[in-house]
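User: Could you go from structure to sequence for me? I need the amino acid at each position, not a summary. Structure tokens:
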């Protein structure tokens, strides 16, 4: 009698809603920095370019996390790494809240953002690995939708709630960040609801050489297939990066948006809408080609940015277009996650997911810098128009590459059919 027959429940996949809770802390620090801290820094007359640089740094560890991804696959357990990452993320939020919000604090906040970003990457990789092993192929889009809904909620709800507490309730940043840190740690209570996958190898210990070999093999398996190659291209291109969304609290005064409005729209409302967009994106991605769905979502975000630039700069416009932007961001993040999950399969899931996610976080980081630079030099409309133009160019590049790949795959498919 096999072990699986002795424990039939262990073969059942967890409901994908568990990934909503587990993944929420992944973006908690970036949400706190991007909404609450960014608004406070803007009120302290810190230049938008400096604030954008700080926010961009929070994504830097995710751009190179493939360097330590094999550690998650080969040492300890995924759940242990989750607890380590969750604790590090919570500590980053707490320390950020204790730091004075002024220009001189930017270097220290940058160091905290990098350290907490590394911790968040460990948390994210553990969840991605758990999900990759436990999710049936036909439900990859649904699981990605729930995970990215948690990602959106962690950033929007956490940051918006913090801003509301500080600005409307006049709660001190230290007490506010303490509450946010506690909420981050509470998410770990969902860990028992997901099954830890069996070890990939019976070999114990950790070898840098073996890890590098495994990472190279995993990357080659993905890159050598047409699906994997297009997935890599999708991740590398700045499609649906949502860079402007990181600066809403900075540019809000130009739309005459009050602090309470910014907190509501970029917090609770944005969290609900982007989470809904993530779930909708998962539904769509399971019913059409996931790469093209991702591109469709990116095109919608570019159109939203253009429309916001063209519309009157009023508080009502700020509410409408930032809400629509949050919807498209949820769609885009789910489209990206669905493409990656489809391409990586199982195996050393944390390593493979991280290799592709690292590519995806590169445009996310530098598009935030582009948004800050263009806002400082060309104004708020220039920021939105620049993002839309770059996104449109990226979509054109992908469409051309997909068309070429499809043409090359045609003769090979016909040969296979006649063999």
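Assistant: Here is the amino acid at each position, in order:
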């Amino acid at each position: 009698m096999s072990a699986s027959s002795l424990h039939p429940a262990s073969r059942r996949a967890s409901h994908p809603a568990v990934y909503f809770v587990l993944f929420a802390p992944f973006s908690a620090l970036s949400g706190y920095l991007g909404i609450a801290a960014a608004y406070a820094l803007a009120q302290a007359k810190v230049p938008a370019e400096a604030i954008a640089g700080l926010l961009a740094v929070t994504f830097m560890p995710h751009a190179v996390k493939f360097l330590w991804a094999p550690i998650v696959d080969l040492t300890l357990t995924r759940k242990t790494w989750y607890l380590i990452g969750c604790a590090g993320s919570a500590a980053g939020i707490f320390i950020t809240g204790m730091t004075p919000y002024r220009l001189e604090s930017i270097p220290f906040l940058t160091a905290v953002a990098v350290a907490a970003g590394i911790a968040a990457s460990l948390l994210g990789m553990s969840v991605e690995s758990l999900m990759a092993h436990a999710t049936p192929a036909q439900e990859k889009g649904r699981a990605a939708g729930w995970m990215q809904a948690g990602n959106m909620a962690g950033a929007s709800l956490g940051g918006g709630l913090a801003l509301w507490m500080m600005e409307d309730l006049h709660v001190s940043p230290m007490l506010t960040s303490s509450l946010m840190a506690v909420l981050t740690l509470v998410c770990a209570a969902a860990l028992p609801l997901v099954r830890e996958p069996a070890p990939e190898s019976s070999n114990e210990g950790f070898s840098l050489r073996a890890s590098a070999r495994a990472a190279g093999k995993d990357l080659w398996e993905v890159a050598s297939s047409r699906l994997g190659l297009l997935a890599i291209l999708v991740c590398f291109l700045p499609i649906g990066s949502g860079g402007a969304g990181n600066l809403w609290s900075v540019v809000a005064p130009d739309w005459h948006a009050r602090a309470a409005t910014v907190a509501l729209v970029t917090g609770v409302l944005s969290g609900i809408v982007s989470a809904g967009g993530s779930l909708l994106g998962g539904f769509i991605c399971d019913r059409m080609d996931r790469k093209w769905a991702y591109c469709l979502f990116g095109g919608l975000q570019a159109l939203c940015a253009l429309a916001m630039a063209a519309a009157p700069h009023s508080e009502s416009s700020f509410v409408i277009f930032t809400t629509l932007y949050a919807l498209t961001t949820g769609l885009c993040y789910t489209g990206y996650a669905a493409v990656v999950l489809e391409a990586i399969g199982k195996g050393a899931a944390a390593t493979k997911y991280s290799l592709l996610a690292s590519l995806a976080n590169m445009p996310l980081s530098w598009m935030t810098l582009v948004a800050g630079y263009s806002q400082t030099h060309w104004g708020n409309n220039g920021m939105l128009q620049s993002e839309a133009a770059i996104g449109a160019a990226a979509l054109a590049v992908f469409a051309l590459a997909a068309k070429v790949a499809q043409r090359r795959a045609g003769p090979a498919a016909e040969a296979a059919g006649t063999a």
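One structural detail worth keeping in mind: Confidence is low (pLDDT under 50) at residues 1-11, 201-206, 411-419.
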